[in-house]
Amino acid sequence: MKIDLSPLLGGETDEILVDYPLTINAEFYGVTFPKPVRVLGTVRNNAGYIALKVRAEIFYDTVCDRCLRPIAGHFSLDFERPVTLPNVLMNEDQDDYLIAENRMLELDELLLESVILEFPTKHLCRKDCKGLCARCGKDLNEGPCGCVLREIDPRMAGFAKLLEKDRNQ
Ligand SMILES: [Zn+2]
Ligand SMILES: [Zn+2]
Description:
By secondary structure, the chain is of the alpha+beta class. It has two domains: about 1-120, no CATH class; about 130-169, no CATH class. The protein has helices at about 5-10, 110-120, 145-150, 155-169; strands at about 1-5, 15-20, 35-45, 50-65, 70-85, 100, 105. A five-stranded mixed sheet has the order 2-3-4-5-6. The chain has a two-stranded antiparallel ribbon with strand order 1-7. The longest helix is centred in the last third of the chain and has 12 residues, at about 155-169. The model has no long low-confidence stretch (mean pLDDT about 85).
């Protein structure tokens, strides 16, 4: 989305409302985005100091890191940056600024970068998810699988096998 800052720069208004859906088509690390990111905020001109302030609401689908159950996640991102026109500031001063080329502010790429940078790295279906058994793949949230005994001590393996035989009879 390109935001035209002309009314702000021309003094017709001191605030432009930003409210638009940002579609993310990318899929990364098994994460997909079922609906567009909602970007909501303002660009404000405060006595010549122009600043963008938006919040992005991100909804995504992924799977639990431990048990692979599908989960729907959500987080929000606050994004606040001063805005300036090209060639107004010395190069070394403009790092923090968004530059409005031709009085237009281009947000999508910046927001996408932030979404990726701030993306949660842990996804659990619940805090105490027990995960899958590394040996038999059973979902341990549904109960123990019986592999644990055999894992305790290799010297007990023969004994454990006997037990299992017993149990299966
Ligand atoms: Zn889980
Ligand atoms: Zn198991």
